[in-house]
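Question (not urgent): is this output format expected?
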Amino acid sequence: MKTDEKAYFTQFKHACYTLGIDLKVTSKSQKKPRVEKYNQTFQDRLAHELHYKNITTIEEANDYLINTFIPEFNELFATEITNKNSVFEKISKQDINNLNYILSVLSIRKFNSGNSISYKGKTYLPYNKDNKIVCYRNKTECTIIEAYDGNLYVQVYGEIFILKELQHTLEENESLEDYFEKMNNTKIKNTLPKPQSDWDKDNLDETFEKINKEYKIYDKHNPRI
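Got this back:
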């Protein structure tokens, strides 16, 4: 993964923390012997078997892995499930909608002098629920919310807005005025989520620090975990 793995793992911990999920992490092989054993088997045995079978292409390797190696491996090491009772709970549409934001990726950004925000190589402008552009001073800090469904929002000073991508090139014979008129006339299809105090920049930093601190303490008092 080319992204900041530490930051994304903190985001995942934040989602688990919000959902009340106890997330246990460890880098110690003693606490996960089955995983370590299986990984070693894959890394060692699979390579030798591919060589023995004279498999030299990716296509042949994938076919052997899926149709031969994994079924045989599961037959040797798989364990039967003793308790087949489901522990999943039914959730309402409101709960599903909440999950869309709980599982979001939060990023801190600053407005530039053109009232736009850069995110993942693209430029965006903030619009309110009435489809009107809102303006903030240069270097105003904000929180980008990338929801699980892919929609983008921004929260500034406890208010939340939708983000519309700003194109860097105009269509043929299109003026700048025509372009912004078209943007302003583009209806907002999705509903704006309610502002969350945890999404404010200062609160977000404090929450992430608290979560990371709790996991550090957890490892400290449980050295074998």
